[in-house]
């Protein structure tokens, strides 16, 4: 007799944390095997931040690359109050988690079994990679009806890599100049081989005293070169040789398009020099604004975190970046993209604001946005000042022991729901690489900065004997 499955009438959301898949061809092209593996391990640690994208939600299954410590799960649930919340992991993590799930028959069967118990099943992911879409197809082949509200259909999936690439967004900017004058990028060119790229880069550097060189789709500072005044020889021939030697150290420079653009000295008074806005395109094609922020960028161009509050930009600058962001969203939506996207800017000292890139996926600030929405409501940008850091360096120490000490050390400044201030730790796995992630909420910018300074002092002794 066939067993009847009694289905739960509610919705189950299954989330795949697949950060590395967003730049998988790039990761595969990193020459040094150690550096390549380090990139995958770092993305594995960053995956714990994703928990906070689902703060306060019910019926969530998250598939993460590696297990999360029980103590940390309890910390998250104590803050979020999530119900029916489950984390699953594949037996083996290669970096392509969607493929790892398909190869793990036990995990795949569990996801199918969970899906069959609910009347509506929604599969979503960090990025709409080809590997994720294949996983969705594999589960559908089992006869399970699943929905993908944050994904384009297969025929429109090209939008992810095209508009999320440095060359794709530059092409759109060039095509849209008349229609949207504010959608402008720093003067630059797209090249396809290192010899010619070195020549055009050297000529631009000698003329402009600064250039930025980007591979088509790098990640977290990898695949990005910033040369300011006096960083390169002023002699054209010597400059060509220096740039060419730099390219030859990494194979990915010869594998993907290269973008060379004028270096813009950032105006820190405008969104910290690097404004940003994040949006989401819903399944019906409607573009939804989420938040704007100032990105916290290191001198070498590495993204560290965000600063969110309505005061980080003037009304005029806010209007410009939001208009540009909505314009990009309309272009994406009309071509079938669905899901999250952001647009990055650099503000010049003459007041111009240039687009630098777009990431067509969830971002390094998405988890902070959802956490803030849960704790403070839709007006969070007016009710709290947010500082985040996804890769805060800590002293070398015994990771497992130090992770246990962390909550005790930071207890004086942990988030207090009564005062509505404090620090939220967004993951402990990164401590294995001597980093920590956090989100700080303060009633004012000054208060947020004081909490961050207090954290610095408290963590100064972490790892000391």
Report on this structure:
- This is ATP-grasp domain-containing protein.
- It comes from Candidatus Gottesmanbacteria bacterium GW2011_GWA2_43_14.
- InterPro entries: ATP-grasp (IPR011761).
- By secondary structure, this protein is of the alpha+beta class.
- Among the domains are: 8-151, no CATH class; 187-262, Dna Ligase, domain 1 (2-Layer Sandwich), CATH 3.30.1490.20; 384-465, TATA-Binding Protein.
- 35% of the residues lie in helices and 25% in strands.
- It has helices at residues 24-28, 33-46, 70-80, 97-103, 105-116, 130-140, 158-163, 166-176, 194-208, 236-247, 315-334, 366-376, 380-383, 399-409, 445-459, and strands spanning 8-16, 58-63, 83-88, 118-125, 188-191, 211-219, 222-227, 258-262, 275-281, 287-297, 303-308, 339-347, 353-359, 385-393, 422-425, 435-442.
- An eight-stranded antiparallel sheet has the order 13-12-9-10-11-14-16-15, with helices on both faces. The protein has a four-stranded parallel sheet with strand order 3-2-1-4, covered by helices on one side. It has a four-stranded antiparallel sheet with strand order 5-8-6-7, covered by helices on one side.
- Strand 12 (339-347) and strand 13 form a beta hairpin.
- The longest helix is centred in the C-terminal third of the chain and has 20 residues, at 315-334.
- The chain starts with 7 loop residues before the first strand and ends in a 6-residue tail after the last helix.
